[in-house]
Known about the structure:
The chain is an all-alpha fold. The chain is 88% helix and 0% strand. It is built from three helices and no strands. The protein has helices spanning 2-13, 20-53, 58-96.
Amino acid sequence: MEETTSKSSARQESVNINLFAEKTLQNAASAVLVLGISVAVLCLIFGISEILNGDSFSMVLILCGVSVLILSLLIYSGIKVFADMSVTLKEINAKLK
């Protein structure tokens, strides 16, 4: 019985997982979020300036800004969850070997 526990503890110490793909996914998710927030802010600023000028195009810009913000947050969350699931699965796979 002691042999089994010592083997499992030795196995846990020697686990070395390559997480390059997951780090790349997390960086891509951050880039999508930053780009989405930047575009959303620009659309909202231009939409507000169009409201002050009295143009009817302003509501389209504001709706585009809000929708880009929401979609970038959803895409960021989805990519983060996918990367975290991949890390977890790699850890489980490494522990089973």
